[in-house]
Each structure stands twice: as C-alpha cells, then as structure tokens.
Amino acid sequence: MPLTVIVLGSSAGGGLPQWNCNCPQCAATRAGDPMVPPRSQSSIAVSADGERWLLCNASPDVRTQLAHTPALHPRALRHSPIAAVALTNADIDHATGLLILREGGAPPVYCTPRVERALTVGLRVLPALAAYGEVTVRPLDPRSDEPVFVRDRAGDDIGVRLKAFTVASKPPPYMLPHLTADEAADLHAGDTVGFELCAADGAAPLVYVPGVKDLDEPLRARLSAAGMVLIDGTFFTDDELVATGASKKTSRMMGHAPLTGDGGLLAFLKTVTGPRVALVHINNSNPVLRSDSPARWEIEAGGVAVAGDGDVFVVG
Ligand SMILES: [Zn+2]
Fold first, then answer.
1. What's the CA-to-centroid distance between 243 and ligand 1, angstroms?
2. Residue 226: which residues within 8 A CB-CB, separation 6 or more?
C-alpha cells in the first residue's frame, strides 16, 4: 500500500508573503504575479488509507491549510481526519499550529524529549493546551532504528510507520535561556530530526527533512534508499539575507545548508541516486520561488523539483 503525501505548506517561517517583507518575491506575490504564487508555512500530511492522517509539523497556517484540503475536512459534527501530529522540531513555524488544534483537545503529539521540553518550558504550548483537553505526548527516540507505529487518539494503528533520525541542528532561539552551554552546543540532541515514513507494508520510504545544516554520509545513505525526498530548500545561497541587509545571519548560522555553493544541497543531491526529490521549507528570500527565474532553472536542471502548497505525491 502506498503512502499519500499532501504538501500543506511549502514555505519556511514567515510564509510568502511575509508580513514585514518587501523583497522581490514577497512584493511579486502581493501584486498577484502568477510566477510567484503565495505559500503557507511548513507542513505535510501523510496517510496510508486516505482516512486517517498524520500531520507532520503544525504550522500557524494550519487552520487555512485544513480548510483548503478536502481530504482533511471533518466527516461528522465533531471529527477530524488528523489522527496525530509529529514534529520535526519545536520551531515556531512548526509547532504553534498545535494551539489552533485545541478545540476538542489536540491530537496526540509525537516528538523527541528535547522538543517536548521546548514546548513545555520554552513556548509553553503544551501547558496551554492542557487547559483545553488531555495532551498526549508520545516520545520519538532518534537513536532507535525501530519504527514507531503511529496511533490515533484511541490507540488504533493508522498504518503509518515513522522513524525519526537526528540531523545536525541548533535549538530554537527561545530555548537558549533554558539550556546549559553543553546542552546548547550538542547539535545532535534531537532538537531537529528528519522523518522516514512509510505504510505498514511499504518499501522505499518518504524521507522528510525540512531543516538540515550538515550534509553527511548517514544522510546520503538514507536519502539513497528513499522512494521520495522532501528536503530543506530554505536558502539559495549561504549569505542570502546578509547580502540584502535583511539579516546578519547566514543560512548555516540559522541551521540550514544552502542550496548552492561549496557543500551546498544541490551538489550533495547529485551524489544521491534514485529518489524523486522536491524542496520544502523555502524561505521567501529564495529566488527559486519565482518559477521563471534562473535559480529555478538551475534547481530543475539538477533534477530537483520545488514543491508547492497542495501538491500530492504517492510514495512506496
Ligand atoms: Zn520576502
């Protein structure tokens, strides 16, 4: 049985357009330019049966994303096809959508202990949700090679298998006051993970990595064995925000390998053979967002697609 994947949001934090940004992409989107359609913040949904769905990351745009996706509409007076939520990290663009899912009590949440801690003492999303219903957190151990059987609120297996794996990453900025220096320096502590997802009888999995800083051998092996890869397309160049004066932080300082340049994602992907690859978590500053740009041609010439909101893929 294949896995169905819906890209609910293909943008990084801020979305396209971002509220306070007038970069060429944001400006073109506001002007209705068909070459730069709007994008919502980072999330996908996966299902093995088309009835019960695992939401991977809950973005602040989740309400609109669900409203625009018939497969995720309620089937009864009080109902949702969202059986559970899994988080790749505790970033604001990936986790605050849990607050939007509070009515009736949020679905069970799969995450690493570090992400649970961030959502408990940092963002305090989980304590806030507890006022609206029981909050069930189910731990993901990124060092384990055993897949988790994803279960709904009632504990029924929804037929989706989930394996989390660590990728080098930094804790969210809001957590720094809560971490020791050693804790903050541990880039493999589980602050950000990638997911391998497949159906119960699935073979080649979907690998979903919306944030990754270091492109290493274990990741290469994992991607090579995948049926499909949805991966971090945040920035085109390392100094993308620095060059325009929008920020002092480079792509790598923000925890994302840039697409181009030495050690960039495109060069890395040339050494990965097999899977279909599409970019997700694309920042509004990234010129690939314009569909007739040289940057987009460069990506597509490398065999890599740019995922868009509402894209559906069948994997496995
Ligand atoms: Zn912008």
1. 14
2. 196, 204, 205, 206, 207, 274, 275
